Amino acid sequence: MPEPAKKTEDPAEAPVGEPGVVKPDQTLVPHPTASTQGGTSATTQDANAAEGAHPPDTRQDLTGLFTEKPQSGEVIVGENITFVARVNAESLLKKPSVKWFKGKWMDLASKCGKHLQLKETYDRNTKVYTFEMHIIAAKANFAGGYRCEVSSKDKFDSCNFDLTVHEARAPEGLDIRAAFRRT
């Protein structure tokens, strides 16, 4: 009975023509009993697994739409703050749509007015959409978590950020009680 061929880790040590082994100067020799599965042979799949090859990574963060995400910010009561999101539209088939949320689900599009403005601009030269959320004269109850969602056809991306609102500081040396003292 013939002795089975030894499996070697180094492809340079493998004999030429051994099925399923690829040398740097050699092409893949398929095993005679390998069946075709979905266009690739089982030997090719085994060789890819042995080399550590993985299917392409298609996680959401690699295909994100944002070129600039809104960053968390801090503001003092009564002051203004702007959050900016930029989207590169070169690879998009249609204009992206944006939604701004406070908390988990409150859509801010219906809350636009005196204290909240949403703006959208497009630069034709760079093909970049800029979406802005302006908070004007911030109040203490504006603090919390926000979310920006951008979608275009079959692509989607979202970003969470926080707004911290600090109480207004009283000017040093001013005592409010002095205004009510009798002289």
Description:
- This protein has one helix at residues 42-51, and strands at residues 36-37, 40-41, 66-68, 73-76, 81-88, 97-102, 106-107, 116-123, 128-135, 144-152, 155-166.
- It is mostly beta strands and 183 residues long.
- A hairpin with a 4-residue loop joins strand 8 (116-123) and strand 9.
- Strands 4-11-10-6-7 form a five-stranded mixed beta sheet, with no helix packed on it.
- Residues 70-166 form the Immunoglobulin domain.
- Residues 33-45 have a biased composition (Low complexity).
- It holds the Pfam family I-set.
- Residues 1-64 are annotated as: Disordered.
- Residues 1-10 have a biased composition (Basic and acidic residues).
Condensed summary:
Helix content is 5%, strand content 35%. With 183 residues, the chain is mainly beta.
